[in-house]
Specification:
The chain has 20 helices and 8 strands. It is of the alpha/beta class and 415 residues long. The longest helix has 23 residues.
């Protein structure tokens, strides 16, 4: 059985990765220069916050959740989390929050090694959206106190089934209410034409990112979930810019070429799986290698699809932003989420689902109220729950996960 599953072939790396590295480096270098010189105002923004509004008002935009993912991927997070715990932040709350605050307190960041940047950029304003969770407000409030700068935000409705007009009107008005503070901080008047331009660029970013992800519907898939978690960087930190769109044009072209040439993300792909939940950032490489050795491709995920905002419309910028940021999977009720995964099943043709129960991220852990069992029955496919965390590797047993994953793939083979 083991011999049948194992493969010595290595997947071909994506050539677009070099361009990706430049886009991300330029993003951080521009922020660092502005932070040091004061040449541009800097807004911190939650990852699915109103980045389009901020860019449209001339801010450079920094995303602490991206830094949190870097802390996880570099495996620095676990040793930095206790610094935040000492300030009274519970080890049970978001490990992006605790590792990021710990990084600030310890004056250690992966930016130092990767880019020779000594610290994250100083904010002039912090802007949150609670569509992900309440933790983002508490996270930004810490830095508001530290830097003595305004903290403003939007409060999104939760557990939504059908989106009603009152949901959208409320969120759109909250976006508009941010403008006076942003004008005061930036020293610039709100420019509707510039805002519309950024919304249009951001929609194009989403269209291209969606097209990239959908290439994985091809059999074999030209890339994997583990590739996508890295290549989604510009969709998070640079959406609404020409640079992001230029990058995804290149990536999409390469992915299409791979499908035409039969180049697969996992050599000898036999099984196709869906990943539901957060990545385990510090174990991306080992998990990628494990699934590749089992001839199994994780072809799609809720996580990577969470940065598709193609509802954005420059002709209706505030209303379409409200829709884009309220339609998010994480905001919706259980019935919507199950229907969504069913649509993914029909499109990507996967044979099983892996749910990641992230210890410190209950809002992105959808296994806790019976969903795996319901979906397994509804779709007639097996589901597996892996216990772990996005950043805190003390919550993850690699040996236990490996044993469970191998047994899960055997189950797919037998079925």
């Amino acid at each position: 059985m083991e011999e049948k599953k194992k493969t010595e072939q290595k997947p071909q790396p994506l050539q677009s990765t070099q361009m990706l590295k430049k886009v991300m480096a330029d993003h951080f270098y521009e922020l660092d220069e502005a932070s040091k010189t004061g040449s541009r105002k800097i807004a911190w923004c939650t990852s699915v916050g109103p980045a389009e509004l901020l860019r449209g008002m001339g801010f450079l935009v920094y995303f602490p959740e991206n830094h949190g993912a870097m802390l996880g991927a570099s495996r620095m997070a676990t040793e930095l989390i206790p610094y935040a715990n000492q300030l009274g932040y519970s080890p049970d709350i978001c490990s992006y929050l605790t590792s990021d605050i710990g990084s600030y307190l310890a004056k250690r960041t992966p930016l130092q090694k990767t880019y020779n940047i000594q610290s994250v950029p100083k904010p002039d304003v912090l802007v949150f959206n609670t569509n992900q969770c309440r933790d983002v407000k508490d996270w930004f409030s810490f830095y508001g106190r530290e830097f003595n700068v305004p903290v403003i935000g939007v409060y999104t409705h939760r557990s939504i089934g059908k989106i009603e007009n009152y949901h959208l009107q409320d969120v759109a008005e909250q976006f508009k209410a941010l403008i006076p503070t942003l004008e005061e901080v930036s020293g610039q008047r709100f420019d509707m034409d510039r805002f519309k331009e950024v919304v249009g660029l951001s929609r194009r970013t989403s269209e291209l990112w969606r097209a990239c992800l959908e290439t994985a519907a091809h059999k074999p898939s030209p890339w994997t979930f583990f590739d996508a978690t890295i290549h989604m960087g510009p969709a998070v930190v640079a959406r609404g810019t020409k640079e992001a769109n230029e990058y995804y044009e290149v990536l999409l072209k390469e992915l299409k070429e791979r499908t035409e040439q039969g180049i697969s993300g996992v050599p000898n792909e036999r099984f196709r799986v869906y990943w539901e939940g957060m990545p385990i950032w510090g174990k991306l490489r080992s998990l990628s290698d494990l699934f590749s050795s089992l001839n199994t491709c994780i072809v799609a995920s809720t996580y990577c699809n969470s940065w598709i905002f193609d509802q954005l419309d420059p002709d209706r910028p505030f209303e379409s932003m409200a829709l884009a940021y309220t339609e998010l999977f994480i905001v919706r009720d259980e019935e919507y989420k199950e229907d969504y995964i069913k649509r993914m099943f029909e499109f990507f043709k996967f044979q099983g689902i892996i749910f990641h129960d992230a210890k410190t991220c209950p809002n992105n852990s959808n296994n806790r109220y019976g969903m795996p069992e319901r979906l397994s029955k509804r779709l007639n496919i097996p589901c597996l729950v892996i216990n772990g965390d996005l950043n805190d590797l003390r919550c993850f047993s690699e040996e236990q996960a490996k044993t469970n994953i191998e047994a899960f793939i055997e189950q797919l083979e037998e079925s």
